[in-house]
Amino acid sequence: MRLDRRFFGAALITLAACSSVPKKPILKLSELEGKKVALVDVEGELTARSIVEVALVNQLVKRGTFFLVPKKDVETAKSAPQQDPTDWQGLAKRSQADVALRAFVKTFHAETQDSYSKEVVLDSQYAEEQGNDGKMERVIPVKTLNGEVRIELEWTQLANNQTVSGTAEAKKSIQDQAKDQAIHLPPRLRFLEDLSNEAFSLFFDHYR
After folding, report:
1. CA dihedral defined by 77, 82, 88, 92, rounded to 10 degrees?
2. Residue 162 Cα to chain centre, angstroms
């Protein structure tokens, strides 16, 4: 069997091109233990940014494996003469950090949905009036609170300028119905606070 040299040559070129693509570094937080981390930026809508920042800082402190640079030191670095506040690596270096951390809020959403469920109940008065077994359907109002948060985290080691990233995310639905009492669901922002904390907890467990 004759091989088409043109095809063989093209295959070699394709193989060489594929093998030359650098592998994306994998985020391993254990490799960053003991390093000074500066949270230099959180991008997102104002409310989302505020809640996500608090949740992230709480998780960083809780883990106790990083030295979190105080926010006031980062703010001082931003106002330093000749310091570009958008130069996030420069801000981290000026803050005496080893790692620059940036967060990008991609999804921060919660909404309430109204629906109904049905159940069969026995009503003696209805049975007497209708002359039957007293079974009747009762419609019960139901409310469901659906929420989702997703935050991209980007970690850059300043010594070698290597950047690794990962995603913190969590989804949850809470449901209540007005069967014997009024419907009670948590306030939307508190629900999103809990989701943000859960997302970061899962993130640090996954990438440890």
Report:
1. -40
2. 22
Token readout for 145 is: 């609170």
Element holding 138 (H helix, E strand): strand 135-157
What is the second-level CATH architecture of the domain 24-115+146-206? Answer: 3-Layer(aba) Sandwich (3.40)
| Residue 39 CA: distances (Å) to CA of 23, 45, 80, 98, 204 | 26, 17, 17, 11, 16
Looking at residue 73, its amino acid is D
- Sequential pLDDT tens for the chain (208 residues): 455 555 445 444 444 444 444 556 778 888 888 999 999 999 999 999 999 999 999 999 998 888 999 999 999 998 888 888 889 899 999 999 999 999 999 999 999 998 888 776 666 665 666 667 667 677 888 999 999 999 999 999 999 999 999 999 999 999 988 776 788 899 999 999 999 999 999 999 999 8
Which among 51, 59, 84, 57 is positioned nearest to 71, based on CA atoms? 57
Domain residue ranges of the chain, discontinuous segments joined by +? 24-115+146-206
